[in-house]
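Working notes for the structural subgroup meeting. M.R. asked for a predicted model of this chain before we commit to crystallization trials. I am recording the input and output together here so anyone reviewing the notebook later can reproduce the run.

Input as submitted:
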Amino acid sequence: MDSSFTKDFSDKKTLEKYSSAFTLSDMEIFIFPELFYPLVLADIMSPELWKWRDDRWFTDIEKKGFTVKANRIKQYIIQNYVFNLDLSTWGLTSKSAEIGRFSDFFDMDMLKQSNALFGYEGDKYYFDIDIRKHFGLDKYDSDIIPYWKTETIEAMGAFRYKENFKTGGGECVSLSALYAAAMFVVGRVPLEKIFLIATPLHSQNFIIEKDGLITNNRRIVTKNMWYNGTSLSEKARRAMENEKVTIVSHISGFIHTLYQEATIDPQAYDFFSDKLKEFLSTELTSLIFINFLRFKSKYKTLFQYRCDCSSTIKYISLEKMFEYEHTSKFNVSSETRGSLIKEIEGDDFHLSPIQWKIMLNDIETILNEHSGKSLKEIEIEFIKKTGTEFEEVIQEMFKELNNFIFIDPKIPDPEKIYSVTEKLKITTENNREEIINLITDQKDTSETAQLALYVYRDMDKIDWRPFVKASVERNPVSFGELNEKTNYEVYSILKELPKESIYDGNRLALPDEVWNFRRGDGIEKAFLLADLLLHNDKSTTISIEIDHSKVLLTTGQHEFHFTSQKKLRKSIQIKGKDYKIV
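Returned structure, recorded in token form:
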């Protein structure tokens, strides 16, 4: 093996980090934020993503504008991937087990301040929903937590092999990485403009193009959408409004709220911070006010609208107008309001002003005449116009209105110690082969490049010890169904599974992936069997001999033969947590 890939895996932190590059749980990415962008790069290296360019849906996509590209990518992801956060997909672990892994090099008290599974509940919203109940963990002992492993594009696509799935699937971090990779490969957006944002309960991307774009699970949110007051924008806003941003990850590096050292380019982070704050603030206009009333429904009951309907002055409550939006292609905004009014039944209008309701027309006049003034100045004008009987509710409304038009994101403090790291020189002009070569060539000078090869599972170019450790220590999915079976019953079941890997070439799936998707190469099946044998008897000594198509697993008492389509040669001995690879 190329000696440049040899790491000091006698160091516990290094071994845990490189082993985590395979399982990529939310916890592991939180502890090792340097793993976040390598997942994006692994998807970029994948042949599965480059196939998208040949899909008819993306014909001539490179000739389209940014908005068209983003919407095409969004629609493709919506059609081909579902959001999946099922607890059983990647199995369960425990707080005590994770603390045992990380406590030597991470302050567990700090973890509780920033990680939802260890006690963090964010603002009142998360306290109210009861975190454990929200995720279905209330039926387990309080020590139990899910692995929630982040999927590569191959694992996301392989969900179609699972029962009750017709398409691919993935959790929010997987979808974030996929969006980032797709925006680069298919949308031709430079990686320098793509930032990954992790909060304790969510993962989003901020793409700095035009006014900015946020990806939210399978959806995208433009600045206009952010302020349109719909249920989609409400869900998208939730993380920014209620949570601290723990990690911002970029092609130049990362910054973490809890770590004093950062590797992100400081200028890139300043650029990100400025653009994100611009995205999260807007001026108060008549349109934004209407959207706010749609967003905060308790205030729309305060207003009525006066219209000239067929030369007759009529009045209608604003909440009634919003009701009609649900069945119309028009809305209450001034641009389409006239068309919406034509669809409203005559019985819903009043011939006299409705008592105790503020006239929206007067409010819109104030907004138009006081454009550019401060929110406080406009609030005073509102109270002057509406009278003292509305003063208290107007003041309350303006506090919430301020939160609607201005969010101060809780991003990591830029006052960090910045480490200079070599940035990967990948451009939208590079093809897939060139990108793989660039990443491979920079493996000695860039940890991001090296970790990308581990996440990509390029077994020809990496040390196998982290893969072996991940395979036999953090892959519990098969245990429930296979635990009561004899070794030879398990062996027979594995032999009957399709002999195909979800990964191309000499890349390997983990045991959980083999069992979840019920298929695997002979090497992958051997590791699943080894995982189960060690789970049942931790004192077992296991040898796996791989010689191209021949795979032999021995335990001292038994031999199990598999056939591989991979072109690999390796000798592996596993005794407890001691892994020797030749």
